[in-house]
Amino acid sequence: VTTTAGGGGGGTTTIHPIADAKVDASTPTTNYGTTALRVDGSPVVRSYLKFDTSGVTGTVDSATLRIWATSSQTTGFDVFGVSDSSWTELGITAGNQPESSMASTKTGSSGPVTAGTWKTVDVTPLLPTPRVWSLVVTTTSGTALALSSREDATHPPELVITTH
């Protein structure tokens, strides 16, 4: 967690996931908790991320998900909230993912993705109060998109929160 104070008592806090993993419908019992994240529309591959924002103080003004792309894709990815954060990084699979607690409406989309760049999505609506919470990244494209995971020490996913 990195926090920088802003004027008037607010600031910016950058949080890395406490867990992240991809799930692959073609291998429903395999756990991919320590590999790079990925999304694909066929077969369906999703990536789950879990953040602990309980240490954030103040009123949240904005929350932005930042993910480093390691491949390119013209469609990009969508982000959905997940109300069930009981999954674990080394336990989640396509067969036991909390799919039923995935929001029916996407929170935001990345747009086209270029390898070697950060992509950001506004996820402010998912963070009304500090807590442990999850989100899932998906795509409708049949072309896979590779993304960095928390195991990438140089480019782990980030949640950037501004408060006042």
Structural features, described:
The chain is globular and about 45 Å long. The chain contains no helices and 12 strands. The strands form 2 sheets. Strands 3, 4, 5, 7, 8, 10 and 11 form a 7-stranded antiparallel sheet that branches. The protein has strands at residues 2-5, 11-15, 19-24, 37-41, 44-52, 60-68, 78-82, 108-109, 118-122, 132-138, 145-147, 158-163. Helices cover 0% and strands 40% of the residues. It has 164 residues and is mainly beta. It starts with a strand and ends with a strand.
Brief summary:
This protein is 0% helix and 40% strand.
Low-confidence stretches: none
Q: Average the pLDDT over all residues and give the rounded result.
A: 93
Oligomer: single chain
State the end-to-end CA separation.
Answer: 17 Å
Can you summarize the main beta sheet?
Answer: 7 strands, antiparallel
State which percent range the strand residues make up. 35-45%
Taken in chain order, the helices and strands follow as EEEEEEEEEEEE
Shape: globular
Helix % is: under 10%
Radius of gyration in whole Å, from Cα?
A: 15 Å
In total, the number of strands is 12
Count helical runs.
Answer: 0
- The chain-level structural class is mainly beta
